[in-house]
Amino acid sequence: MFRNIEWLFFDVGSTLINEEKVYKHIFYDIADATGESYGKIYDMAIRFYKENKKGDLELAKMYGIPALNRYLEEEELYSDAMECLEILRQKYKIGVIANQSFGTASRLEQHGILKYVDLVVASAEEGVSKPNPKIFQIALERSGCKPENAVMIGDRIDNDIVPAKRIGMHTVWIKQGFGGLWRINEEEMPEKEVNHLSELKRLFLC
Q: β-pairing, 17-18 with 150-154?
């Protein structure tokens, strides 16, 4: 299905990096701030995600919480991320297009995967964030890759799949984290869906 592909671009959060502990901590913070139970906060967040809204931000807005700690130190590499990148790197160039705070490359290095990544384009450093198509265009320009020769792999339909499709990139939705709860319509359909990074090998190495 994917022909003449030169670059694979990955999102970071809930794509290469497991944010489960991060969000658990955030929901506990919201529960503490509001006096609600963790279970209630979690269930409300899930309902928001299923409505195609970002649950933690919606809860913060609803309860008037001005800022949420993102707990970057609690991020963990998905168990199959390193092997996946190591194998795919033998055939493709690997890039990152992500909405992240300053220091994305350093954090990828701490997780041991920067050595497999040829290009990092992150919102904080670029001053533009997904779903703005400009951040995708920056990545394509720096990589020297045409959109039809690139694939965007991410967990968010709104931030990853839709804008990448609109500029002509191929798309793979990885249904990890809360992004996997998104209810998609026909316009938003990715070319392929996977549940884990390890599944990318059969898509790109067959």
A: unpaired
Q: Using pLDDT thresholds of 50, 70 and 90, give the confidence band for residue 49.
A: very high
CA-CA distances (angstroms) from residue 200 to 8, 21, 132, 154, 173? Answer: 10, 24, 26, 12, 11
Q: Which of 32, 33, 31, 35 is nearest to 45 (CA)?
A: 31
Residue 23 pLDDT exceeds 90: yes
Contact by Cβ (8 Å): 174, 197: yes
Say which CATH topology domain 7-18+75-204 has.
Answer: Rossmann fold (3.40.50)
Structure tokens at 10: 């990955």
Domain ranges in the chain are 7-18+75-204, 20-72
Q: Is 28 left (phi over 0), alpha (psi -120 to 50) or beta?
A: alpha
Residue 5 CA to residue 133 CA, distance in Å, equals: 20
Q: pTM for this structure?
A: 0.95
Q: What is the mean pLDDT of the chain?
A: 96
Q: What is the CA radius of gyration of the chain?
A: 17
Average pLDDT of span 165-172: 97
